[in-house]
Amino acid sequence: MKFIGKLLLWILIAVMIAVLAFYFLIQTRWGAAQVSSWVTVNTDYELNFDLMDHRFSSPSHLILENVTFGRDGKPATLVAKTVDIGLSSRQLTDPVHMDTITLTDGTLNLSPQTAPLPFQADRLQLNNMAFNSPNTAWDLSAQKVTGGVSPWQPEAGNVLGKKAQIQMSAGSLTLNGVPASNVLIQGELNDKEVNLGTIGADMARGSLTGTARRNADGGWVIDTMRLNDIRLQSDKSFMDFFAPITTLPSLQIGRLEVTDARLQGPDWAVTDLDLSLRNLTLSKGDWQSQEGRLSMNASELIYGSLHLFDPIMNAEFSPQGIALRQFTSRWEGGMVRTSGNWLRNGKALVLDDVAVAGLEYTLPQNWKTLWMDPLPEWLNSVTLKKFGLSRNLVIDIDPAFPWQITALDGYGANLQLAKAHQWGVWSGNATLNGAAATFNRVDVRRPSLALAANASTVNITELSAFTEKGILEATAAVSQLPQRQTTVSLNGRGVPLNILQQWGWPALPVSGDGNILLTASGSVQDNAPLKPTVNGKLSAVNMDKQQVIQTMTGGVVSTTPAAEPSASPSP
Question: Model-level pTM?
Answer without folding.
Answer: 0.79
